[in-house]
């Protein structure tokens, strides 16, 4: 199996795909959409710490909590470890 993987890594196709991926990673300029914060990080913060802003979709129960819960778990772990202080 290792020999097959090693052989695959030496193919011209793999080299071209790797080069394309590296060029793509270097040239694509993106930004964080503000909605990403309001619909995930801010909601997770409110779940863990009890304060923060949530949009009307959350107040009316129109959105699911699966995505914000990923961040809430990290926030809670930091809180339990005492690493949630900003100082």
Structural class: mainly alpha
Helix content: 55-70%
| Helix and strand sequence | HHHHH
Overall geometry comes to elongated
Oligomer: single chain
On the 0 to 100 scale, the average pLDDT is: 87
**Distance N terminus to C terminus?**
51 Å
Q: Biggest β-sheet, characterized?
A: none
Radius of gyration: 21 Å
> What fraction of residues sit in β-strands?
under 5%
Q: What is the number of helices?
A: 5
How many distinct beta strands?
Answer: 0
Low-confidence stretches: none
Model description:
This protein is mainly α and 87 residues long. 68% of the residues lie in helices and 0% in strands. The chain has five helices and no strands. It has helices at residues 2-9, 12-27, 34-49, 56-59, 66-80. It starts with a helix and ends in a 7-residue tail after the last helix. The relative contact order is 0.10.
What is shown here, in short?
This protein is mostly helical. 68% of the residues lie in helices and 0% in strands.
């Amino acid at each position: 199996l290792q020999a097959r993987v090693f052989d695959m890594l030496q193919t011209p196709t793999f080299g071209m795909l790797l080069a394309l991926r590296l060029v793509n990673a270097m040239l694509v300029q993106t930004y964080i959409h503000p909605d990403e914060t309001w619909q995930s990080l801010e909601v997770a913060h409110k779940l863990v710490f009890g304060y923060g802003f949530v949009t009307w979709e959350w107040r009316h129960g129109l959105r699911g909590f699966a995505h914000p819960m990923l961040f809430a778990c990290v926030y809670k772990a930091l809180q339990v470890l005492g690493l949630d202080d900003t100082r």
